[in-house]
Amino acid sequence: MMNKLGRKIVTLAATVLMGGSVATFSTVGAAKAATDDNQVVLKQLDTAPHGKQAFAVTTVAMKGDKIVAAYIDEFQFVKKGTKGMTPVPNSTKGFAKGVKNKQMLISKATNDEAYSGLMKKEAKSTQGRLQSLDAIEKYTVGKTAAQLNTALAKNKKMQKKVISGATLADTNGYVKSIAQTATKGYATKGIDVTDDNITLKQVEAAPHGTDSFAVTTVAMSGDKVAAASIDEFQFVAKKGFKGVPNSNSDFGKAYPKGKVLISKQVNDKAYSALMKKIGKAKQDRMTSVNAITKYASGKTADQLKNDLNAHSKMTDVVSGATLEDTNGYVQSIVDAINK
């Protein structure tokens, strides 16, 4: 599959980042447990692999301790209205209210053509950003975190000499980030798959209101979801919350006054308490999200769409999910499958 900017999300690939702060998560099973190395497990980590002006969402699919696929996107503020760039969902609505300096938040992957053009103009880059990431992914296919860390220790500059086709100055940072994700990332368990032919697909979506945007990821085995994850990002008052990497650096300069951009997944305890206080939620957010991703695992897009068409309230179908916008979250999984 090609995304709308022409990037092929490489099967059995892994990308990694280094440097900056790292947000770590507890391991949570979101699908029927498996007792062998055939189970697909998605792991996700927010990191800062490249400078102080962006943060990254790194996702790896694993079987046992082996990385079988990976996808990395970075999010950065750019001037509102920058030619050729599309902001994240809800950027004209509540999510972006109060953002400073006439800035908008973009996904670098979604805006690869325009962002790579900027790289070539300002930093004299010799090729597009995603071309290098594809090369990094291919290099890491089938490796473990330990193998990646060993290679990093031996090579201070992995671009060109070790990873043919990668020219990014922070290539080691991207490689290290996958190693970190494979060991420290929030884990969502999926189904058993006998082969390693797993492909990751990811979309930005707006499944829940106008104050946040979601990053929804699926690990595909053929036309079936092997595992899925859904995180959301929102500006909230600083007290009691941990911001995404680089929130205290250049990236955070565009934040609305008194607020910080958070991952709801990382801040589940604090955000769920807010849900219960303000929205009278019955349970933690991740309890419902894990129920949704468990329900989706093993299904095709058509099966999920049929259920959506048949049920105005998917909470009647998804055991354990109580979120009012459960239909929206399931639809975002369908959208990711169909990307």
Low-confidence stretches: 1-22, 24-35
Order of helices and strands: EEEEEHHHHEEEEEHHHH
Q: Give the C-alpha Rg.
A: 19 Å
Report, as a whole number of angstroms, the end-to-end distance: 7 Å
Q: Strand arrangement, largest sheet?
A: 1-6-2-3-4-5
Task: Give helix % range.
Answer: 25-40%
Question: Which percent range describes the beta-strand content?
Answer: 15-25%
The assigned structural class equals alpha+beta
Number of helices: 8
The biggest beta sheet is recorded as: 6 strands, mixed
Mean pLDDT: 89
Shape: globular
Characterization of the model:
The chain has 339 residues and is of the alpha+beta class. The chain is 27% helix and 24% strand. It has helices at 112-122, 129-140, 145-154, 171-184, 268-278, 285-296, 301-310, 326-337, and strands at 27-28, 39-47, 54-63, 66-79, 103-107, 186-192, 199-205, 212-221, 224-237, 259-263. The strands form two sheets. Strands 1-6-2-3-4-5 form a six-stranded mixed sheet, with helices on both faces. Strands 7-8-9-10 form a four-stranded antiparallel sheet, covered by helices on one side. α7 (301-310) packs antiparallel against α8.
Keywords:
globular, 27% helix, 6-stranded mixed sheet, 4-stranded antiparallel sheet, 339 residues, disordered N terminus, 8 helices, alpha+beta
